Amino acid sequence: MAATTAAPSSTAPRRHIAVIPCRWGASRFPGKPLAQLGGKPLLWHVHQRCLEAKRLDGVVVATDDERIEEACHELGIECVRTGEHLTGTDRVAECAERLPADAYINVQGDEPFISPAAIDAVSEALEQLAPGTLAVNAYTELQDVGAVLDHNVVKVVVGAQHNALMFSRQPIPYPRGDRPRYLRQLGLYGFTGTALSLFQYLPQGPLERTEGVEMLRFVEHGHGVRMLPVIDDGLAVDTPEDLARASMLLHSQPVR
Known about the structure:
The protein is α/β, with parallel strands linked by helices. The protein has nine helices and eleven strands.
């Protein structure tokens, strides 16, 4: 598998590229992108999953931290240094201004087991967006009760037109009547450049600020977020405890 270069090699337009936003100062896990998993930094595993996707024309890490940038250079990973931003998607938006492409796949840097097939599915869905829908966000069904109750796991409610109605760290919907299906929002989003420009322009609303879920910015301002069901049984790393679980999961997987 060919590695990318450590610096953007061309400004020529690329069709779809993955951008992995990484910051050092996560409140629950400072330095998380460089936390070691199987002898490699967490961001390296995410980058590898992106390289395994078949529809991408490139993969780049976007960060405002020199330690992360230096690690990318050492690993041969393409990296763009950005300013400070409120969210990962704001960081991806800055990156989009400097790397022309038809569309951008935001792959969160804490999803070391993200499915390459899921990344490809988001890429394909971006080419079939309905009018008024600005983004694609992958999701999967939650089976574990503990994950449903875990505030680090973002849940989503999806409407009849497959758009997001609400995201929350609380278990939604509330099971007053029928037993609900709980759906986990994955850290896997797709945008056109136009959608990213709008995202930067829109102010954070009270729901986004309260929940800390960036896709609520589109929802609060009346823009559609297409929710895409995918098969993904991985684990997002939000805390050091998650990293320990990820290590066990990594060692239980067959050698690639």
